[in-house]
TrEMBL record, chains A, B:
GO cellular component, one term: cytoplasm
Source organism phylogeny: Bacteria, Pseudomonadati, Pseudomonadota, Alphaproteobacteria, Caulobacterales
Cofactors: Zn(2+); Mg(2+)
Residues reported to bind Mg(2+): 92, 94, 96
Name of the protein: Phosphoribosyl-AMP cyclohydrolase
Gene: hisI
Protein's organism: Caulobacter henricii
Entry's cofactor comment: Binds 1 zinc ion per subunit.
Family: In the N-terminal section; belongs to the PRA-CH family. In the C-terminal section; belongs to the PRA-PH family.
GO MF term list: magnesium ion binding; phosphoribosyl-AMP cyclohydrolase activity; phosphoribosyl-ATP diphosphatase activity; zinc ion binding
Length: 132, 132
């Protein structure tokens, strides 16, 4: 397992325009990660990555997160089969957020509640409506 | 301005399957918000909302965030013209993340660096490549 840390961007220009992946982890050592379906564009879930999870995601092409509730590395789908194969990884301007375009394996789902996406509820007329 | 707080879901079922918007703000009083282009599906940016920003977003149909760097309410586009008209608002299973599908106004951009999306850099062959 690779544990070498990511570099720290020396200045704003390097952070925003540089070609080095220099994630700005928060005080808890995490960046936020958005998983988008590579084919449909649907937003599947939002989770967090520590440096190890990000490195493993980059190196293996399979999405790894950090579970804040369990306080441990989380290879998404390891038990459910809903592995996420990473088609593309992007970082935002100030490198505190990661976007991964993924192809969910197994039953194609991403959400523990049973929906394909975690964002299965829409705000309509003052209440949340499920759209499976 | 409405400042009444959002309800707190009484249990897991209400949180995950209920029809009440009961956001789980973090210790800083924030939920993470992903803005997706309503027409193209492109992920434009990731930012944060406090209760006031979320309420204003829901009530006005214009995206409001909370700027962590300026520590204040941030009506996106107020100075740049890049207002984001909200087409749809979704919440995730455990209600600590919000997805808004928006139509950016002004020049259609969302990123302060000048790109349409903040996620303008793709990880390719061990480095970040800009894709404008």
């Amino acid at each position: 397992m690779t544990t070498a840390p990511f570099p720290i961007a020396p200045d704003k220009h390097a952070l925003e325009r540089g070609d080095q992946l220099a994630p700005r982890f928060n005080a808890d050592g995490l960046v936020v990660a958005v998983a988008q379906h590579a084919d449909t564009g649907e937003i599947l879930m939002l989770a967090w990555m520590n440096d190890e999870a990000l490195k493993l995601t980059v190196e293996t092409g399979v999405a790894h997160y950090f579970s804040r509730s369990r306080n441990e590395l989380w290879k998404k789908g390891e038990t459910s089969g809903q592995l996420q194969l990473v088609e593309e990884l992007r970082v935002d301007c100030d490198q505190d957020a990661v976007l991964i375009k993924v192809r969910p394996q197994g039953d194609g789902g991403a959400c523990h509640v049973g929906f394909r996406s975690c964002f299965y509820r829409v705000w309509e007329d003052g209440r949340l409506v499920e759209r499976g």
